[in-house]
Amino acid sequence: MIKQEKTIPIRKFYKNMLWKKAKSFWVTYKTTKIGLTGLIMVLSFMFMAIFAPFITPYNPMKSVGEPLLPPSPSYLLGTDQLGRDIFSGLIYGTRISLMVGALASAISVLIGTMIGIISGYYGGLRDSLLMRITDTFIILPTLPMMLILVSFLGSGIHVIIIVTAVLVWTGTARMVRSQALSLKERPFVEATRAVGAHDFRIIFRHILPNTFPVIFANAILGIVDAILAEAGISFLGYGDPFYLSWGMILNYAQKAGALVTGRYWYMIPPGLCIMLLTAGFAFISHGLDQVLNPRLRRR
Amino acid sequence: MTLLHVQDLSTHYFIREGTVKAADDISFGIKEREAFGLAGESGCGKTTVALSIMKLLPPAGRIIKGEILLDEEDLVSKKEEEMGTVRWKKISMVFQGAMNALNPVINVGEQIAEAIITKENISKGDAWSRVKNLFELVGLDPKRIKDYPHEFSGGMRQRVMIAMALACNPRLVIADEPVTALDVIVQGKIIELLKELQKKFDLSVMLITHDLSVIAEVCNKVGIMYAGKLMECADATGLFKSPRHPYTQRLIGAYPSVVGEKRRLNFIPGVPPDLINPPSGCRFHPRCPYAKKECPETEPLYVEAEKGRFVACHFVDELKDVLKQGNNP
Amino acid sequence: MTSNTIIKVRNLRKWFPIRKGLLSAFFGKEEYVHAVDGVTFDIIKGEVLCLVGESGCGKTTTGKTIIRLIEPTSGEIYFEEQNVVALGKDEIRKLRCEMQIIFQDPYESLDPRMSIYDTLAEPLIVNKIVSTRDEEEARVFDALEDVRLVPPEQFAMRFPHELSGGQRQRVAIARALILQPKFMVADEPVSMLDASIRTEISNLLTDLRDKYNLTYLYITHDIAQARYIGSRIMVMYLGKIAETGPIENVVMNPLHPYTKALISNVPVPDPTVKRERMSILGETPTPINVPPGCRFHPRCPCTKPICSENEPKLKEVKRDRYVACHSVA
To answer: Which residues contact B320 (CB under 8 A, 6 or more apart)?
Structure first.
């Protein structure tokens, strides 16, 4: 065996390990065409969202021209019935979608993970109780429930985020629960108990880290659900009137009779954006799947 | 007299990380009514050899050279369609972990009958009566032919697999780890069954296992594989009493026994090599206590050291006495 | 209780309830798996007591219940005069440092996401044994050296998937050792390893026992293995002890019919040894509906009328030889 002059300090070792792991993950991820496509799509939207003030010529909420103008060099996608530039609205709308998507997904994953872990690890009465609560939430029809809650609680953007989160955590909860159930039986968990570890430590240092792939996958797909939910609520007119999201633009477009009057530049772009952004996240999720599950990769 | 003759068989697996030289230059013969044991530790290539003979290699595997002569017919050059007349009718196989390979939603009788009907042109009625016969042969109650796999224990399912292997009266049965997952007493019963069936039907058996004790019970000829190469091949008594290869001696020496005197067992330090980049020259040289200069340089030839005994070692003559049972350096 | 006895087990029972559907839970009778059904034995300091039996006999459950990894249904367990059953959760944690366990599966008993260093440091952290990072590192490296994984700095940085089965099992042993226990339960520690590695690990366990004055409860289904490593043997069948005694005596001269059958069925790595296989009828039943009287009587070749009525007690028939059988005076 090669003798080493000095031992690598443990902390630096872990930093190196993390870096190596991240690099190897990226290398594999790059090879998945679908993952890469998704990443490019999402990054483009993020770019749009971050640099919105620089890309957009006008303030999307202010009336800047004649109402219902067709596309022109000064108004790339024309104006809506209040004279606002549709293109600027579209770009700023990216911010809403991404923000709602990310936050709602994060909160729902948090709730779902907590419930799933307690249910799966402890089992027994706690499990039965939590699962019955979860079942109740599953059978609630999401969109109607959201509309009801929003009408009671008001249509602020923060309300929409919380309402979305509270209704979609069930998927994560069940997946995390089944992961926890199977992990809890594995010998290394038993071994950790045998050396005297408390439940707390077992959950946080052993069960949770091994559940991350599932949580992460769910989080990404949760973003898709959240974006679509917000778009749905806004389109139906329950969205936050102080912000202009894609769903809201569609709502206004419908009120202006854009479809009937053939103003396709008004109706199609927001819908297209919703589709592309959610597709992007879905592709990322496929890419992740292929990285985490090597059998799905094409040789 | 020789039923199966394998000559210089080499099978490699082509995977992303490289080429796995799973089996190289394997040569041995199985006579009629002979029980041949192919032994070695996990990863040494024994299952690869079996799958090569049956031409059931996974997509990444390919026979790159050699001959497999069954009654003078070369199986390597046969196409897939032609193998249909060979598989199950001339050679059949009981796969590793086979008792878990039964379809859980079809009753066992049907699974065997299906195999028979596919291979031979007989009526369903005849096939089912043969299934009843097979059940009796392997010691199962013929009234249970319509039961489902989960209604049988592990040992009984293994008997079902053996019945399936015998369904079309093959001449050679390859059994890959047939008793590894079974309890001692059930293991004993299956071993007795194999011996009995072999006598009754003039079968040749190729038994693949890592357990030398089982080989000692069942087989009259033994081949020892290591890292994809055949290290030694001899009659069972000769091999166990006076091994001619250092690996064989060490391997036998690593087995505790319930008879005989108790002694401290030696072991072989190190781990089996990576088969993508196997050691140069003799693949055992990094772990061999007798390795000298020639060992990493050239591969030893597989020669007939004495009548009926083949060994692949540079120092086969010099080590003859040193390796006799009981002499541990 | 002599000061020589480290573990005392009296009438230990572990019954697992069988979960049924909602309706049967209300209307049906509660059924249990009688995994361990009243075992009584002592373990002497410094000895290696081999707990032997086929799958389903309750040996693993016994081992895990003694250290209260599984809660016993009833019975008494004493560790060095302390009543293990009566201890609360915190006191059990303190006792863990004295009683440790090595699991069977080297591929599953280590957390795949934790480095070897972390896996070994965890027992120290959890029990607050060390206060500085240097102390912790020193203990981890010492443990690695004890199990001959050197250089320890290199192995500490690795992850389980980078190690071979034998190396992983050594890490498992190191983890059990790092708390400096007095007693270790080894649950089939080598059954998933190759033959040559088994010997290595067995020898390591024996050396560690000598070095640290350990006591082992060695659970295995491999009697040859038990004979090699053990000093005393205990044979279990369907949740009860059939026979115990010094290992050489029991192996050379088994008294209980079940033990006789077991030993006669163990294959021997020597083709010249011809042995009579003692066959017993049927298969091992599940421990749910246990036969009345002696559990073994439906399969026993020398059963008498009394065997189906009275359950035989474990009696000392010769010095140090305990047998539970009506036919053995």
So the answer is: B242, B244
